[in-house]
Design a protein that fits this description.
The complex is a heterodimer of chains A (695) and B (263). The relative contact order of chain A is 0.12. Chain A has a two-stranded antiparallel ribbon with strand order 1-2. A two-stranded antiparallel sheet of chain A has the order 3-6. Chain A has a two-stranded antiparallel ribbon with strand order 4-5. Chain A folds into 2 domains: 293 residues, ABC transporter involved in vitamin B12 uptake, BtuC (Orthogonal Bundle); 207 residues, no CATH class. In chain A, a hairpin with a 2-residue loop joins strand 1 and strand 2. Chain A has 695 residues and is mostly helical. In chain B, helix 3 packs across helix 5 and helix 3 packs parallel to helix 6. Chain B has a single domain, classed as 3-Layer(aba) Sandwich (Rossmann fold). In chain B, 38% of the residues lie in helices and 24% in strands. Chain B has 10 helices and 10 strands. The relative contact order of chain B is 0.18. Chain B is of the alpha/beta class. A 6-stranded mixed β-sheet of chain B has the order 6-7-8-3-9-10. The longest helix of chain B has 18 residues. The chains are: A mainly alpha (695), B alpha/beta (263). At the A-B interface, helix 14, helix 15, helix 21, helix 22 and helix 23 of A face helix 2, helix 3, helix 4, helix 5 and helix 6 of B.
Chain lengths: 695, 263
């Protein structure tokens, strides 16, 4: 017991910080309907401001005040106004992508503004972070731990007073309970939601400032880890209860120290600790009331109008994309019926007038690459091809099913490591290793999918994020898999007279792999699976009721997608010659999703363009001063702000514009259908907006 | 067993529900409901708002798990089976709040349902480019489109349809895979008189041609009378009465609870 206390007490400060995050997440989620993954980034921004100000000689109290009471709420209000207020009833994907983009971009923006990472060790709010002031039993308490505990007690006290005894607190409780009912009662829910944003942003800021001294240097990644712990705490609070979230956060902080204490030192203990959020998510997510998670307004309120037929406002990405002309159907069938021009009906991926142009561009690029392009350009292009394959895995998973995976980079890394290890340890040809890597990624995909895929939407995204973190800590450092920081070497394929070691042959090989991957995606998209997936996107309820086993379908697609990512990762590793855990860390998954979502999740071209653009920009950035190292993340992260308006991706917007320029007459001819004038058979009485049937 | 909701005259029992009970918190939505549908029979379920009609549908179809009771379909216990399995066994269903696949065409709605009903694994065939619809499947889609009288709409995306046609598409989708029981939840809701009459005609024609059994929740008594063989009245989660339309509507209790007539 005494030993338990010895282990548990040092966990309390961690618990306090986690609890602040959890409570803040639940507060904004319930008040504004958005699960704000940018929370980790907000914590980082304030922590950076605090440390930078102290380094510039500001007194600590003033620095805390600026960081927590000015910068924190400022960032929160700006985000609320610019973005989150507008997407509260959007689909999970449309909600998640911008907050992911901000999670990636905000810290880099802050670093660019700050110029450089502060060099001083981050100080505690009060006292000396390292000095031991008093002992609790035999446990020494440092200034850092004391300041964390004191701050949390104060915050909790303020919250209690606010919620219990002030009018705005009462309104906030009401909004958390039911935003619509509160609005019906005459409360301005927007104002209350803004207040909740200010409050929760201050808590994120405080959590960041408090946590900073635990690390010798500020690194955005640590704050993403903090976010994942906060998410786990929020899940314990079932996304709904502030006190439960508080307790959850505290329990996690204590729990991780206790686990670390009792477990033998080494990889297991070090790995088990970071895997706690994943375990918690798996256990507690099914308990949360899942139906309400995608739309927190749906439970006791009248159902949301989002996604409803004839609804105005934001609709799901798939719907928007489909209304753009990607109506999914069977060409032969409609030709036979003669009711629809065949040109418009060729499956998920509709041929556009610009298609010929894209093919021409692709052909010129490939021929150039194989003939005159200099070696360093070729390398970049080849990286682009490898990334394109990984992006295709997201086209398949997220573009076609709407499921959000934040562990695609993990699958890619795993595929690469497996291919390399098999080649090095057992002398397996690397091409076979790539296949094996893909297969193993698929197996792991199934293992991840089985417990998590019942969750779908936001919970799935969170579970995959936690899984990526787990893989980073347990799988990648293992000498049998990722071999830690030193990584794994991968040869380029060569068998007898056939060698792909040189740059151009390898590029050719990469193109072949890309073509196969694209073929898989296209076949699945245009086939029966694609039709099933369209159906599930349209209405999951109706899909199961016509006999589609939605769960199994999702597991299949998830596994296939993991396999593609694994092959892409292996190809990338083979290209580079070696692969380390950093290449495909958990934060990369978020970047990948953001990039391909911006360019276009709904087409193969989108994935290819995303791959080339991503690789090119990364190379381009290296020629800039180090200060701008994070510029790619900033560009794509901030581009997600426009994602809410164009969920179909930039590529579709551009090609729509191009189409407008070159193909006006042609597309007009396609849309007009003489056999079926739209108004001819519509009922004269019942038409117009459908309000979901009479109740 | 109480006589109410007992087996119908003639025909074997297709759907047999016994003692279905469902609570939501403290509210008892269904309280020991018995219901039988014989093969080829048409049964209407009526009752005031909140009587538990849709909840009964959901319990029978598997969207809600009843707290108690058994459901037997075609001689097999189905109350633990997931929705998609019940559907593949031959139960088609429509929804009060319409559920269509936005972005897909009318023909594809039917085709998806037809293919899903057979339940074969498709991914390998897709990867070998052999996943397309078979001539038999396409033929059946065409048949149903003709039956519904919407062949000319086959290529239209469903979001462009008006409500009457959208309801027909939903009905057609439920009819794919040749189900033995069709569960229709308020099929006429939001339709005008012409559309309702057409719906009634289509349902009659379907029964004659396929011998499908119908279970129908409906407010429009004229439509109910024109279709069903037997009527079950639910009130506060209990079966209040059951029998032919004329019998049931004559019962004073039904008139009080449902029609609001005090005699």
């Amino acid at each position: 017991m005494n030993q338990f206390v010895n282990y548990a007490v040092p966990g309390v400060p961690f618990g306090c910080v986690f609890a602040l995050m959890s409570v803040g997440l639940v507060l904004t989620y319930k008040a504004s309907g958005v699960f704000n993954l940018a929370f980790g980034a907000q914590a980082f921004v304030s922590a950076l401001a605090f440390v930078a100000l102290v380094q510039d000689g500001w007194p600590r109290w003033a620095a805390v005040l600026i960081a927590v009471a000015v910068i924190g709420p400022f960032v929160g209000v700006v985000l609320d106004r610019l973005l989150f207020r507008r997407i509260r009833t959007a689909s999970p994907l449309v909600k998640l992508v911008p907050s992911l983009g901000l999670l990636v971009a905000l810290p880099q923006v802050a670093l660019i503004i700050a110029g450089s990472t502060p060099t001083i060790p981050p100080p505690a709010i009060v006292g000396d972070a390292q000095r031991v002031y008093l002992h609790l039993g035999s446990v020494p308490l440092s200034g850092l731990e004391l300041s964390i505990a004191a701050s949390t007690v104060i915050v909790v006290g303020v919250l209690i007073v606010l919620f219990r005894f002030t009018p705005v607190g009462l309104e906030m409780r009401a909004v958390v309970e039911s935003p619509r009912m509160t609005e019906l009662a005459g409360v301005n829910a927007g104002r209350v939601s803004a207040f909740a944003w200010i409050l929760s942003s201050m808590m994120a800021a405080l959590a960041g400032v408090l946590l900073a001294p635990l690390y010798s240097q500020l690194d955005p990644q640590n704050f993403t880890v903090l976010l994942v712990w906060g998410v786990a705490g929020a899940v314990i609070g079932r996304f709904a209860s502030l006190p439960l979230a508080l307790i959850g956060g505290l329990a996690l902080g204590v729990g991780q120290q206790v686990i670390a204490g009792y477990m033998p030192a080494g990889v297991i203990a070090n790995g088990l600790r970071p895997s706690l959020p994943f375990v918690v998510l798996l256990v507690f997510l099914p308990l949360a009331r899942l139906r309400q998670l995608d739309d927190p307004l749906s439970g006791c309120d009248p159902p949301s109008t989002a996604g409803e037929r004839g609804a105005v406002g934001y609709r799901s990405a798939s719907t928007v994309a489909s209304s753009e002309g990607t109506v999914h159907s069977v060409g032969v069938w409609h030709q036979r019926l003669g009711s629809v021009p065949p040109g418009r009906m060729v499956g998920v991926f509709t041929r556009r007038p610009t298609a010929t142009l894209s093919w021409a561009v692709a052909l010129v690029t490939v021929v150039s690459a194989l003939t005159w392009v200099p070696a360093d350009w070729l390398l970049t292009m080849n990286q682009g091809v490898a990334f394109a394959i990984i992006f295709l895995s997201l086209t398949l998973l997220t573009g076609m099913t709407g499921q959000i995976s934040l562990c695609q980079a993990t699958f890619a890394g795993l595929g690469g490591f497996v291919a390399g290890q098999l080649a090095n340890q057992f002398g397996l040809p690397i091409v076979l290793g790539m296949v094996a890597g893909g297969l193993l990624a698929a197996v792991l995909g199934v293992l991840v999918a089985l417990p998590t895929l019942r969750l779908a939407g936001l919970p799935l995204a969170l579970a995959t994020l936690a899984f990526a973190l787990l893989a980073d800590n347990i799988l990648f450092p293992n000498s049998w898999i990722g071999n830690g920081a030193s990584g794994v070497t991968l040869p380029r394929p060569s068998a007898g007279p056939v060698s792909f070691v040189a740059a151009r042959p390898f590029f050719l090989l990469s193109l072949i792999v890309l073509a196969v991957a694209a073929g898989v995606v296209k076949l699945v998209g245009d086939g029966t699976m694609g039709r099933y997936l369209s159906a599930v996107r349209g209405s999951e309820l109706a899909a199961t009721s016509v006999g589609i086993d939605v769960y199994r379908l999702r597991v299949l697609v998830f596994a296939l997608s993991a396999a593609l990512a694994g092959v892409g990762g292996a190809l990338f590793g083979s290209l580079e010659g070696s692969l380390s855990a950093n290449d495909f860390g958990y934060q990369i998954s978020a970047v990948l999703l953001v990039v391909v979502a911006i360019v276009g999740l709904r087409s193969i071209t989108g994935a290819v363009v995303a791959g080339v653009v991503y690789a090119t920009l990364q190379v381009a950035v290296t020629s800039l001063p180090t200060r701008f190292a994070g510029l790619v993340a900033v560009l794509f992260g901030l581009a997600t702000l426009s994602y809410t308006r164009h969920p179909e991706g930039f590529l579709d917007v551009l090609s729509g514009k191009a189409q407008g320029l070159i193909g006006v007459r042609r597309s007009r001819g396609l849309q007009r259908d003489p056999a079926d004038p739209p108004s001819a058979e519509s009922s004269p009485v019942v038409s117009g907006p459908v309000s979901g049937g009479a109740v | 067993m109480s006589p109410v909701g007992g087996p119908a005259q003639g025909g074997e029992e297709l759907l047999l529900a016994r003692g279905i009970t469902k609570q939501f918190g403290g509210i008892v939505a269904l309280d020991g409901v018995d219901l039988t549908v014989a093969a080829g029979e048409a049964v209407g379920v009526i009752g005031p708002n909140g009587a538990g009609k849709t909840t009964l549908f959901n319990c029978l179809f598997g969207l809600e798990q009843p707290d108690d009771g058994t459901v037997v379909f075609d001689g097999r216990r189905i109350d633990r089976l997931p929705v998609w399995k019940r559907s593949r066994m031959g139960i088609g269903r429509t929804f009060q709040r319409m559920q269509l696949f936005d972005g897909m065409t009318v023909a594809d709605h039917l085709l998806v349902a037809e293919q899903a009903a057979s339940g074969t694994v498709r991914i390998w065939r897709d990867l070998l480019h052999r996943g397309g619809p078979t001539p038999a499947e396409l033929h059946h889609v065409e048949e149903v489109l003709e039956l519904l009288g919407i062949v000319q709409l086959a290529g239209r995306p469903v979001e462009t349809l008006d409500l009457g046609h959208a309801r027909l598409v939903e009905l057609g989708r439920a009819m794919m895979g040749t189900p033995r029981l069709l569960m229709l939840d308020e099929p006429s809701s939001g339709l005008d008189a012409d559309d309702t009459a057409r719906l009634s005609g289509i349902l009659g024609a379907t029964r004659r041609s396929t011998g499908v059994a119908l279970l129908l929740v409906e407010h429009d008594l004229a439509l109910v009378e024109s279709i069903v063989d037997r009527l079950v009245v639910l009130n506060f989660g209990k079966v209040l009465a059951s029998g032919t339309v004329a019998e049931v509507l004559a019962e004073p209790e039904v008139r009080r609870a449902y029609l609001g007539v005090t005699s």
